Amino acid sequence: MKLHVPDLRKEEGKFITYNSTLVLSIGGNEEGPALKINLQAAYVAKMILIKGHWEAEMQGECSRCLEKCNYQIKESFYEEFKQLSLISEPSERDSGNVSEEGDLFVFRGDTLDLNEYFRQSFLMSQPLKILCRSQCKGLCPVCGVNLNYRQCSCLEENLDPRWELLLKLKEKN
Ligand SMILES: [Zn+2]
Ligand SMILES: [Zn+2]
Q1: Strand partners, 71
Q2: Are strands 68-85 and 104-108 parallel, antiparallel or unpaired?
């Protein structure tokens, strides 16, 4: 995703809305996840401010039951990029024309290339745990059956022996 800076400079101080889908390349995979980006950008005092949010539909494996499932990642952002000069320097790097100086993002030239920024944002927003549903019951630790579909009796069988006696008494009645 690239912003044309002169468009923003013409309307200095005003937020302009951009909607875009960015297909990320991750780990050599050119057809990686697609981020749906909703972004507002403004040029203010040689800075480009961006704010908004993105979301991505993902496929993965539930950490409890190991079934394939779809999940969604959403992230909001607010960032500033300082324009150092109007002249772009030829860059051989894949990461576009943005670099970091201290804790500030800087760029040179007429174009603000946000691809690498969003790639990093995506990599940092990976969930620690993927769940197919919030109430996923997972797998039985004894027989491995998926407890969302079937109930096994392993946990009953592994009850405390004192309870077992009570259960037997109950069965007799
Ligand atoms: Zn699950
Ligand atoms: Zn079981």
Answers
A1: 58
A2: parallel
Q: What stretch of H or E contains 55?
A: strand 47-61
d(CA 5, CA 128): 37
Report how far ligand 1's centroid is from the alpha carbon of 139 (Å): 8
Spatial separation of the C-alpha atoms in residues 25 and 20, rounded to whole Å: 16
- Distance (Å, whole) CA 151 – CA 105: 54
Residues with Cβ–ion distance below 5 A, ligand 2: 140, 142-143, 152, 154
Q: Is the pTM of this model over 0.85?
A: no
Cα 69 to averaged position of ligand 1 atoms, centre (Å):
8
CA of 144 to the centre of ligand 1 (A): 13
Return the SS3 of 26. strand
> 44 forms bridges with which residues in the sheet?
47
Residue identified by tokens 């745990």 is 129
- What is the chain's percent helix, strand, coil content, to nearest 5? 20, 40, 40
- pLDDT, one tens digit per residue, over 124-164 is 999 989 999 989 999 999 999 999 999 998 876 665 666 66
C-beta of residue 111 within 8 angstroms of C-beta of residue 4: yes
